[in-house]
Design goal:
Elements (H helix, E strand, L loop, with lengths): L2 H9 L4 H16 L5 H13 L3 H8 L13 E4 L5 E3 L8 E5 L5 E4 L9 E7 L5 E4 L5 E3 L3 E2 L5 E3 L11 E7 L5 E4 L3 H11 L2
Parallel strand pairs: 1-3, 2-4, 3-5, 4-6, 5-10, 6-11, 7-10, 8-10, 9-11
Length: 196
């Protein structure tokens, strides 16, 4: 009786996101030398044509779990002096941002991100929260409470294939939430760092 749910789960149709996750895991395994290029090619072909979860599962069974434990969320508290995450940093699946009196700034422009979705829970409080995203990233703010500060989304709202979606939830508080692309100064600084 207990085998029936597992059997039916395997028969479930695979989505594009399911296939993409397997392809990404296979590419990482090849980069780490766990499978050779010939095997990578073979497995990629099977992954891209898989129709069910049962067809995808054997392609990565010997490589470890496809979904890693997300662990603790990244928590930033603005407090009095503010908090920020900029430059090169690894983006976790879940981020908590509390604006406080100093505000929080999350700059994803040079961040390392292999996720398709990132949950950002905000409590903008007095000083607000600023999210700086690369062109092509999309922010979903449908579940965000606008509060007194409101939301200023200065992005186009268009998502490029293969880029993440930020699911922004929580409250804009009094300070508000701003979502924007890198400004001119930030782009210049980034170009300068890349040219070193």
């Amino acid at each position: 009786m207990t085998a029936e749910p597992a059997r039916s789960a395997g028969r479930m149709r695979a989505s594009d996101a399911d296939r993409e996750a397997v392809v990404e895991q296979l590419r990482e395994a090849a980069a780490e030398g766990r499978i050779d290029l010939e095997e990578l090619d073979e497995r990629l072909g099977l992954a891209l044509t898989a129709k069910t979860h049962a067809e995808l599962a054997p392609l990565t069974d010997d490589l470890g779990p496809a979904v890693l434990d997300p662990g603790e969320p990244l928590t930033l508290k603005g407090g009095i002096h503010g908090a920020q995450r900029t430059g090169r940093w690894k983006v976790p699946p879940r981020i908590l941002a509390y604006g406080g009196l100093g505000g929080v700034r999350l700059d994803f422009a040079r961040a390392e991100c292999r996720l398709r979705e990132i949950e950002v829970e905000v409590d903008a409080q007095m000083a607000g929260v600023v999210l700086v995203v690369p062109v092509g990233w999309k922010a979903d703010t449908d579940a965000l409470d606008l509060g007194f500060g409101g939301l200023k989304d200065k992005t186009s709202g268009e998502r490029l294939p293969g880029t993440p979606v930020l699911r922004v939830t929580g409250s804009c508080g009094a300070g508000g939430v701003v979502i924007r692309y890198p400004n001119l100064r930030e782009r210049r600084k980034q170009r300068k760092e890349l040219s070193r």
